Amino acid sequence: MPLVHTRELITAGRAICAFNVITVEHAEAIAAGAEAANRPAVLQISENAVKFHGGRLGPIAAATAAVATASSARLSLHLDHVEDESLLRQAHAHGFTSVMFDASKLPYGDNVKATAEAARWGHEREMWVEAELGRVGGKAGDAHTPGVRTDPAEAAAYVADTAVDALAVAVGSTHAMTERTATLDHSLIAALRDAVPVPLVLHGSSGVPDTELRRAVTAGMTKINVGTALNKAFTGAVRAFLEAHPSTTDPRKYLTPARAAMTDTVAGFLRMTNV
Ligand SMILES: [Zn+2]
Fold this sequence. Notes:
Elements: H1 6-10, E1 16-20, H2 24-37, E2 41-46, H3 47-52, H4 57-70, E3 75-82, H5 85-88, E4 98-101, H6 108-124, E5 128-133, H7 152-162, E6 166-169, H8 186-195, E7 200-202, H9 210-218, E8 221-226, H10 228-244, H11 251-272
Parallel strand pairs: 1-2, 1-8, 2-3, 3-4, 4-5, 5-6, 6-7, 7-8
Bound molecules: zinc ion.
């Protein structure tokens, strides 16, 4: 079916999972997992994934959009963790209806200024704009910052000053965790939910156990970002296949189980957060 606007999925009153696309197999797995779970999902492409594709947004965006429109699931395209303003300005032309503009490395005042400008630009194009306050940490090149938390009063002021449509908050999760051992600060989630008038986004959800994630969703965490869990499934399946079949040369042989493993992971997250 045609691409859905991210705003429609986020404001439908249920939690929505957003999965990171790196290869076409990721996109296919996300679409298949959404179909299997009979749930909508967001396909998101990060600035780092665009860098992996030679800095060109067009080809991977076009492939992802084609996979999404060929699916029977309700899917949207989101551009994730954009720091480069020239990439931000390509989003609309490539079918993205939402973008996460990440100025979280900047001091507070500079973050507000840059994000307000990004939000203004996005809103002129009917786009939905997410930003981050308090560093979630753990992205490639980041210092590990597990102790950082978003302050509720500062978050409320930030949303008012930037006019963003959703806010990524630091409540105990960290990007790129390969074990699901994160403990979330549930009282902080509740305080943020009370203080902030827009949907809250949890980054680094791959490292959060099921029970913690369901509690976070119940407490009002709306967008659940999942990347590493797919890559763990993908790489684990490739590794197992190649260990068992060391003479294989046809990539379809190992990408088939890798894609199937990601599909199962996607469906699992979609079912588990359906509370
Ligand atoms: Zn993130």
